[in-house]
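Sample intake — Ubiquinone biosynthesis O-methyltransferase
Collected from: Comamonas denitrificans
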Amino acid sequence: MTAPMNVDPAELEKFSALAHHWWDPESEFKPLHQMNPLRLGWIDQIAGLKDKKIVDIGCGGGILADAMARSGAAEVLGVDLAKKSLQVAQLHALEAGTPHIAYREISAEALAAEQPAAFDIVTCMEMLEHVPDPASVVHACANLVKPGGWVFFSTLNRNLKSFGLAIVAAEYILKMLPTGTHEYQKFLRPSELTRFCREAGLDVKASSGLQYNPLTGRYWLSQDCSVNYLLAAQRPVV
């Protein structure tokens, strides 16, 4: 029997309905556009993007994947299960002339079975909180990366502060995101994500918080991982 797909159809529908807005920097995806340079710089500082073979899991409309390709990566593959988002990503790459980039409609688990240990860098940003089984995605990312390679995650912490800021403030008060974008019970504490990494054979090497000031509209990296945070893990060289 075929294993059930690790996907929530409601989540796919949610992002498919917004697909045509992915590359509008003033749309619902404005926060991702604003965060992207910070995430890109953090990844590059730790792992170095130049000449690397990279896969972006849950790439959506390709905001991060496109930026990594433009930063000198040898090859970037963006994968997602939202067909409309992938079509937007492919169209943008064609119109912008983005080099060395491709997109596929495939799950992380299926790609890991097809191309084990094939990538220098694996990124999985703002995706784990949208799937039924995040540990399965973490395991797939660990299987996709080469020994010595890096895996990067970003997600939302689960506590009262993150509920207040990421859901109540961002979705209901400031209207930065559409209502219902996030489900609190799917948020992951850093300790939980670290455990998933350890169980998948990855060594967590670094973390960073991502802060936001609603008055100035500015994002910055910090040591405060209480709401948005990033995690960098490495597959050991055996």
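Post-analysis note: The chain has a mean pLDDT of 93.
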